[in-house]
Amino acid sequence: MPTIAAEPYAYTFPKGKLALVIIDMQRDFVEPGGFGATLGNDVTRLTAIVPALQRLLAAFRAAGLPVIHTKECHRPDLSDCPPAKLARGNPSLKIGDAGPMGRILVAGEPGSEIIDELVPIAGEIVIEKPGKGAFYATEFGARLEQLGATHLVVTGVTTEVCVQTTMREANDRGYECLLVEDCTESYFPAFKQAALEMIRAQGAIVGWTARSDAVIATIAAR
Length: 222
Ligand code: TIU
Fold this sequence. Notes:
By secondary structure, the chain is α/β, with parallel strands linked by helices. It has helices at 27-30, 35-38, 50-63, 83-87, 140-147, 159-172, 189-204, 212-221, and strands at residues 3-4, 11-12, 18-23, 67-72, 98-99, 102-103, 125-129, 151-157, 176-185, 208-210.
């Protein structure tokens, strides 16, 4: 079986069972004036992963492997946004309020769009999710089953929020997950580091971590 150099030990996957999952690389999290910024975060630090993520995405496309993008966003009437989520924090703009990129975290608004550098191409799956995890209240699980994917290479933002929640949901459903260290980022460097360590601790209790170069080297050689 193909093998990727990873921590805490080598990650193997059956040919044809691997998919790339890109979590929430949308303007609302990486550009000023979006959801991430309204929560008080320095959003600019997230864009550092874009070049590596572009290379990884290109490698999956070249290998003919499936790619799934997610977007955290809500229906325009906010009927899928729990009151607790709407009220949480002390944001400068609440979910659904009008901001410089349209209504905050609302589907169809400019802020909800995936950034130009990573825009999905025809045939790639895009999942709109109302929660942090990609499985909750979405067709993500059904689409993975249709693809026959059992092994997920996970990327995107933010590491300890939507990425980690999705990995934990996937892990409990029996998926073998590999988090790509230089293709995920957090507003809080210490939280990213802690998430990487807790995921791969205890013999990959949640999953594996690896550098993008190692993933690319293996899938390009298949
Ligand atoms: N706030 C934060 O770190 N993340 C989110 O709200 N959503 C995602 O992680 N996508």
